[in-house]
Amino acid sequence: MSSVILRGGTVVDPIGGSGVRDLAVRDGRIVAPRAGERYDREIDAAGCVVMAGGIDLHTHIGGGKVNLARLLMAEDHRQGVEPIVLPGNALELASCGTCAPGTLATGYRYVEMGYTAAFEPAMVPSNARHAHMEMGDVPVLDHGAYVMLGSDELFLELLAQGGPDLKNFDQIRDYTAWTINASKAMGVKVVNPGGISAFKFNQRKLDVNEPHVHWQVTPRQVVHALARALKELGVPHPLHIHGSNLGVPGNIRSTLETIEALEGLPAHLTHIQFHAYGTEGPKKFSSAALQLAEAVNANPQISIDVGQIMFGQTVTASGDTMRQFAQSGLANPRKWVGADIELMAGCGVVPFRYREQSFVNALQWVIGLEIFLLVKNPWQVVLTTDHPNGGPFTSYPHLIRLLMDRPFREEQLAKLHPEVAANCALKSITRELTLEEIAILTRAAPAKLLGLPDRGQLGVGAAADIAVYREKADRESMFRTPEWVFKDGVLVAQAGRVTATPVGGTHFVEPGYDPIIEKTLRRHWQDRAAIAFDNVAITHDELCSCCNGGRLLPAACFSGDAA
Ligand SMILES: [Zn+2]
Ligand SMILES: [Zn+2]
Predict the structure, then answer these.
(1) Ligand showing the shortest atom-to-Cα distance for residue 386
(2) In the prediction, which pLDDT does 560 show?
(3) What stretch of H or E contains 278?
């Protein structure tokens, strides 16, 4: 392996320590620089900001609905894209697409911005192989996924059997652990808790304390049981919650009730912008960013990612069939897909165009930015657009500028629907995020929330995933095109050109469980599923070959094993 020294850069690293210093890399890891030592590559990083590689903790890059989105959005793949030419003229296949990019384009575009890891948030257990294969086909990036539970029939059946004091909690915990192991997941995501199933029983909405018509359990019970299971299993990433009533005016109530339902258990509330709406004003649609931020500020065990919306064409792809069905009338272009496999969850893919002159879209844009700027502790916030739901991930540099540059923010705000531009609280928020805070939102906090101690930072021993940005006043241009990007010490992009495409690794966790649960599961799969139970679980060898021979990166669980 090779060695590199980056000399004189301004390291911005909220974990390992910031300041002007040399950064040395040997065999893919950060090492202490030593005077007189020779390095294979020497880089003058003076005038540059050096950060750990970016980590996207919530981006839809693999699995069934991503593929359906590609299929549905043929027009997104119409423009020709130049193939990437690697040194030595080794030609990589061209790949295209913006809101539903192909696997190769996904890797290239992330790496060109200095990101080195990305996590798929909605992997259905029965579709886990496909999700891993797709992510394994994404070059360079390390990846992982959260498996979906909480609207699957077995979970709801167990929850209903448990009664009010959940006397079978051990079974639910073991089922959760088994599913994580079998699907090689990094965590668990619950989507519209219980609601995707309720939709199949013809319920068209489900509030946090409202019972599912068939199973007679509430979203409150679903969220609490799953959050408790993950806590007891020691899974580092807490329950990843896509709450009830996504996109519905007044849903701040559901969001606050969900936080209450957790009773102090840790959780990550995802794409929270879509869950922070009030009903004030003449249009009965208002920002509840302040209420949301107050709740986050008061609950340090809660983290969020924003799901900022960006203007332009995108496609929304969600496991939330209930809400996507409700939104399907707004599809632009007018087409959509809803699907389910094995009664495990669901999905809806609805193309959408966010417009500056739409009152609702303008307010959504404002609400996202207000949340970013009103939550006090940056360690509780992760920068996302919920790619592609709020907008494609390629808009991150623009979003970073909006957060760091108030005059630029004002300029953009002035272009929006006049009622929103004139009346929003955002107008009076003066906060501009610092480079240190951006480093937290885009690498250090996600690494911490995922339980990856050697990522998201540049201390000695950390993985040499590094992005070197030329310091510029225009933060969009600065974060758009880093001068150099390294993945595990290998130069993978230089001045916006991909230079190498090593295979990324797979992050997952393996919590312990009592194997007695397999009796229940075997019966369930035999009676109700199309796939034989013995073929469900993915082994290490299979995961490795699924993922293009990439490294397996199991993350440690906290408190040890339940089994
Ligand atoms: Zn979601
Ligand atoms: Zn999402």
Answers:
(1) 2
(2) 46
(3) strand 277-278
How far, in Å, from the CA of 18 to the mean position of ligand 1? Answer: 34
Task: Using the mean position of ligand 1's atoms as its centre, give its distance from the Cα of residue 319 in Å.
Answer: 7
H helix and E strand count, the chain: 19, 24
C-alpha distances out from residue 523 to 180, 227, 505, 528, 533, Å: 19, 26, 34, 8, 9
Ligand with the closest atom to the CA of 393: 2
Q: Which residues pair with 278 in a beta bridge?
A: 286
Residue 455: its H or E element: none
pLDDT score recorded for residue 92: 62
Dist. CA 25 → ligand 1 center (Å): 37
Q: Which 3-state string (H, E, C) describes 467-481?
A: EEEECCCCHHHHHHC
Residue 216 Cα to ligand 2 middle (Å)? 27
Tokens of 54: 């970016």
Q: What angle do CA 339, 345, 350 make, to 5 degrees?
A: 40
Among the bound ligands, name the one nearest to the CA of residue 243: 1
Task: Please report the pLDDT score of residue 465 as a whole number.
Answer: 98
| Residue 235 scores a pLDDT above 60 | yes
CA of 110 to the centre of ligand 2 (A): 17
Q: Which DSSP string corresponds to 215-250?
A: T---HHHHHHHHHHHHHHHT-SS-EEEE-SSTT-TT
Phi (first) and psi of residue 418, to 5 degrees: -60, -35
Residue 264, sorted as left (phi over 0), alpha (psi -120 to 50) or beta, turns out to be left
Higher-confidence position of 91 and 128 = 128
Query: What mean pLDDT do residues 510-516 have?
Result: 97
DSSP-derived secondary structure letter, 363 = H
Compute, in angstroms, the gap from residue 371 CA to the centroid of ligand 2: 17
Confidence tier at 181 by pLDDT (50, 70, 90)? very high
Residue 228 structure tokens: 């408790």
DSSP for 487-529 reads ETTEEEEETTEE---PBPPEEEE-----TTHHHHHHHHHHHH-
- pTM for this one? 0.97
Q: Nearest CA to 61 among 358, 411, 392?
A: 392
**How many residues appear in the chain?**
563
Considering every ligand atom shown, identify the ligand nearest to the alpha carbon of residue 389 and give its number. Answer: 2
Q: How confident is the model at residue 94 (pLDDT cuts 50, 70, 90)?
A: low
Instruction: Determine the distance separating the centroid of ligand 2 and the alpha carbon of 187, expressed in angstroms.
Output: 14
pLDDT at 78: 78
CB atoms within 5 A of ion ligand 2 belong to 121, 386
Distance between Cα 75 and ligand 2 center (Å): 22
Tell me which ligand sits closest to the C-alpha of residue 390. Answer: 2
Q: What is the pLDDT of residues 446-459, one digit of tens each?
A: 999 999 999 999 99
Counting ligands in written order, the one closest to the CA of 121 is 2
